[in-house]
Each structure stands twice: as structure tokens, then as C-alpha cells.
Write a structure and sequence with these properties.
This protein is an alpha/beta fold. Helix content is about 30%, strand content about 15%. The two termini are about 20 Å apart.
């Protein structure tokens, strides 16, 4: 299938999604390349260089699970691998499989136009490359477009300022520096607990409290935990268990090795439910979020009880009464778990330090940045040497909208979605033939383990394109009616939960002017997998082929 003029597939992005697609295509003999904006592979982990960066999926599920040669010859050293560990993994992956020869680095795709006559995509880049490909596969990730708020005066600041997603590769010396950090999402939490003991003074600007839960990090070199057979303590899995774990995770709601508690919330007494909470708290990681009761996301009583448990556990670690109320208020600012919880090891202890201040920007908004620091309504200007903006991303759609993608009629994806995101099977959208994305809008991306979702979607797309090749077809497009049905399905799942009332990036609420609506699939991996298989088994119902 090699063709010097037209690739079978051009993939944009060299993270887990792009590498998975590349490996699938190369194994089938499809001519394919990746264009990657960074100078090396790794996706989000190439860019996330800030202090304390690490993943919140635990071993062994955060890797390319189909590549036995790789996971059998690579050993992670921690339960939750750091950015450094993950980049070591990607280098091993590259060295073993020779992936870089198929990747064009330092290349940003600026436009993609579909040719209706030839049924191919014409792609252009910021480096003046022009490429034609039968299929365009967008693996830009759901958090690739960083968001920097338009703070007045930021350009006048005489110190240094950085977005957490644009941290210098050589790092920063923060020792004895006065530092301000805006934002307390996952990046903010990890940075705060990492630098809190190093800096001279730290000022944290918080909009809403992070619902942090214990990571329970373990190193492979730690002393083994002696436990009983029914203990909730996490243990390092043996590699002989990996394949059974990898098979199991396609049947769990979040794609992790453990699922929700099997008993329903209402079927247990309050005492029995407390035991479930305690066990998941002890297990650590995402357990308290995704291994307790599934009703937490639809039942307000269950949610309130989980929040109360979390607040009590957290408040007992906080010494300062004002900080305690800002970080873990008795009344929940929003439903528990409707923003992705952050994993922590010492986040709350940092706020017990005398050199750490916390400012609530709801009661004391940021007015501007001056040449000396950030000015707020109540505190005025607090002088600092460095400002860190942990202000997140234009999630799910931002990375797609950065590319000028147009169909044969000249209609862009931005125009098509001007009233809201519309997808079919969370993989594609009508009127844009031969285009798919992985780990993007309406996917299960942000509600569990990434590589599980990625593998399912990549394999499904690969099977579809292989079927087309065998059938002599060279064009596929989703139809409008099934797209509308699928989009309604995504919306219904969302509206029947507690999520809509929470201002989160799950529905684009963190970006001024962005249309609010579900950007994430709430049905869980088993239901999503089932929907994909139904479509496939019905001869890819909902698509038109030529």
C-alpha cells in the first residue's frame, strides 16, 4: 500500500493515541506518518515538564498494552510513574520499535482540506510541508491547547512567568524565590506540593477548591506490605498477571483494574458504606472516585455522603481555620467527583506552612498583573519573582480547532460545531469524510485510564479501514441522522447525572465564550465498547461508503 504521492494515513500527534495508530497501520502495511509539534514523541508528557508532574493511572495500565515486547522488557519503578519515568518508557518504545523514522518532529499542522474528487486530504504545515493522505487521523489529545487567561498587564511583569504546560526543559531554580501560582487543578496541585518546601514564599490563587485524594505512591524498592487476603492495600502486580489485567479493564467502567463496588448504595447501611469509603481511601489513587459507588454521579444523597467523608478526612489535616474553610469547606461548592479529583501526597500539609498564603479569587478577584506581581481586590499587589499559570486547557475541541479543517464545500469543523459539538460514536463527524480522531470530543478520555480508551478506539478505526481496503472502498463518512442520535445519547447521559451543575472543563466552562455542553462520554467503557461493537456487527451502520 506504499505510495510516494498519497499516504494511506497521516496521523497528527505522537502521544499514546498517535503511536498506537501508527503501530496498527504499519503492521498492516498501510503507508503512514505522524506529524508532531514537539521535538520528540510522548504527547502530553513531552510538554508536561513542570515540577512534580506524574500520571494518575497506576501500574500496569498506563502503557501500550498490546505491545508485549515493550511491557515485558520495561520496568516502571513507581506505582504512579513520574514524567521522567514516562519519558524513559517512550524512549524505550522508540528505540525498540524504531518509531521516530515515521515521525516528522517540530511540525505543526495548520490546515487540512478534503478533495471530493480524489477522496483525499491535502494537509499543510507551518514548515511549508504539503502532504496528501487518504485518511486523516487526529491524535491531538483532549488537553493539547493550553489556556492563558488574558490578565491585564501580564506583559509588564518584570519577573518570569510560565504556563505549567510550557515549562522550560532545563527546569527552573525556585529555591528561596517568591512564587505566585494561579490555578489549583491537577498541574497546580502537583506543582504546589513539589515546590512548597523549596520557595521563600508561595501565594496560591484559587477559584474553587481541588478535591484531592490520597495518591498512596509506592516505589518498587519500598518494603513489601504484609497484608491479609481481603486487604485494600495496593500491591505491585507481577508481570505474569499483566495480560489478565489488560483483558479485564475493557469491562470496567473507567478502564482501571478495579471497578465500582458491586453493591448498590441504598442496599447498604451507613456503617457498611463507611467501610467501602475507608477501603477505597486506603487503596489510594482514583479508588475513592471510581471504585466506590456508581450512584455518586447520579444520586445527590450518595454524593453528599461521599463529600462529607472526604471533607472530614481532609479538614483534619489542615491547621489554619481560614485555609481549612477554603480548601475543604463543610458545604460542597459542587458535587463530589464532577471535576476530576487530583491525587496528592502532601498538598494539604503545604498550606500549614507559614510561608504559604491562599487567596480566594471569588471574594478577591485578580485585577491585573503589575511589574511587581499580581494585584487582587483585597490584598493589593503581592511582590513575587515568578508567576506560574496552572490555568489548564481548552479541552477536547481546542486541539482540533487549532487546525483549519475544511470539507470539500469549504465548511470548517468550527462552523459545523458553532452551536455545539456533534459526533458519531465519539470518533468522527458528518460532512468530514475519511477523518477520525482518537481520545477527543465525546470520548471516555477524561473519566478513567487513557490507554484503555485509546486502544479500543484505535483498534476499531483500524478494523474499519482494513474492511474498506478489502472491499475496495476509499471513502467513508458518518451520516447526519445517526450522528444526531449519538449526540443525543451523549447529552442524555450527561443530563441524567450531577455533572451539568458543575462549571468544569468537562463541558467547556473554563473557557470564556465557549459553548457549554458535554464534551465527555458518561456511559463508561463497557457501554461505549458495546455501542462500537453493535455498529461494527451491523456492517458499520451509520456510515456511508464509496
Amino acid at each position: 500500500m506504499e505510495n510516494d504521492q498519497v499516504l494511506d494515513a497521516l496521523i497528527i500527534g505522537a502521544g499514546f493515541s498517535g503511536l498506537n495508530m501508527l503501530l496498527n497501520f504499519r503492521k498492516l502495511g498501510f503507508s503512514s506518518k505522524i506529524y508532531e509539534n514537539g521535538s520528540y514523541l510522548g504527547g502530553t508528557w513531552f510538554w508536561n515538564r513542570y515540577p512534580g508532574a506524574r500520571v494518575d493511572s497506576d501500574l500496569p495500565v498506563y502503557q501500550l498494552m498490546q505491545e508485549k515486547e515493550i511491557w515485558n522488557s520495561f520496568d516502571f519503578k513507581e506505582r504512579f510513574p513520574s514524567r521522567q519515568e514516562l519519558m524513559r518508557y517512550f524512549r524505550h518504545l522508540d528505540k525498540t520499535l524504531g518509531l521516530s523514522k515515521y515521525i516528522i518532529y517540530n511540525t505543526f499542522v495548520t490546515s487540512a482540506d478534503f478533495d471530493d474528487g480524489e477522496n483525499i486530504w491535502h494537509i499543510k504545515t507551518d514548515t511549508d510541508l504539503s502532504t496528501s493522505a487518504r485518511y486523516l487521523i487526529l491524535c491531538t489529545g483532549f488537553q493539547s491547547k493550553r489556556y492563558t487567561p488574558p490578565f491585564k498587564g501580564l506583559d509588564t511583569f518584570k519577573g518570569e512567568w510560565y504556563h505549567s504546560n510550557a515549562w522550560p526543559e532545563e527546569g527552573l531554580n525556585l529555591v528561596k524565590k517568591r512564587v505566585a501560582i494561579v490555578g489549583t487543578g491537577a498541574s497546580g496541585v502537583q506543582i504546589i506540593q513539589e515546590i512548597g518546601t523549596q520557595v521563600a514564599h508561595l501565594t496560591v490563587y484559587q477559584r474553587s477548591p481541588a478535591y484531592c485524594i490520597p495518591m498512596r505512591q509506592r516505589s518498587f524498592n519500598d518494603e513489601p506490605i504484609v497484608t491479609s487476603s481481603n486487604s485494600s492495600e495496593w500491591q505491585f502486580p507481577n508481570k505474569i498477571e499483566y495480560e489478565s489485567i489488560f483483558n479485564k479493564i475493557k469491562s470496567t467502567f473507567s478502564g482501571f483494574a478495579t471497578d465500582f463496588y458491586p453493591e448498590k448504595f441504598d442496599n447498604l447501611s451507613a456503617t457498611e458504606r463507611q467501610k467501602v469509603y475507608e477501603d477505597s481511601w486506603t487503596h489510594g489513587g482514583c479508588a475513592f472516585w471510581l471504585f466506590a459507588f456508581s450512584e455518586l454521579f447520579t444520586n445527590q444523597e450518595a454524593n453528599d455522603e461521599a463529600y462529607a467523608f472526604w471533607a472530614n478526612k481532609t479538614r483534619e489535616r489542615l491547621h489554619h481555620p481560614i485555609k481549612r474553610e477554603l480548601l475543604a469547606p463543610l458545604k460542597p461548592p459542587h458535587a463530589w467527583g464532577t471535576k476530576r479529583p487530583c491525587l496528592e501526597t502532601s498538598y494539604y500539609e503545604v498550606f500549614n506552612q507559614n510561608n504559604v498564603d491562599l487567596i480566594d479569587v471569588n471574594s478577591s478577584p485578580i485585577i491585573e498583573v503589575t511589574e511587581y506581581g499580581i494585584k487582587t481586590k483585597k490584598e493589593g499587589v503581592i511582590p513575587v519573582d515568578i508567576i506560574i499559570l496552572a490555568t489548564g486547557f481548552d479541552s477536547f475541541t481546542g486541539g482540533l480547532f487549532d487546525i483549519n479543517i475544511r470539507n470539500a464545500k469549504g465548511i470548517s469543523i468550527q462552523e459545523k460545531w458553532k452551536t455545539g459539538t456533534k459526533t458519531y460514536l465519539s470518533l468522527c463527524t458528518s460532512d468530514l469524510p475519511n477523518l477520525f480522531w482518537v481520545y477527543g470530543p465525546h470520548s471516555t478520555a477524561a473519566f478513567g485510564n487513557g490507554p484503555t480508551s485509546i486502544e479500543i478506539q484505535c483498534n476499531w478505526i483500524t478494523d474499519l479501514l482494513l474492511k474498506m481496503h478489502k472491499d475496495g472502498q476509499n471513502r467513508v463518512a458518518a451520516n447526519e441522522e445517526p450522528e444526531a442520535v449519538w449526540t443525543k445519547h451523549v447529552n442524555d447521559l450527561w443530563q441524567n447525572s450531577l455533572f451539568p451543575a458543575t462549571n468544569s472543563w468537562y463541558q467547556g466552562a473554563n473557557i470564556p465564550g465557549k459553548i457549554r455542553g458535554p464534551l465527555h462520554y458518561m456511559g463508561g467503557i463497557p457501554l461505549y465498547y458495546e455501542k462500537l461493537n453493535i455498529c461494527r456487527d451491523n456492517n458499520y451502520e451509520g456510515f456511508s461508503f464509496v
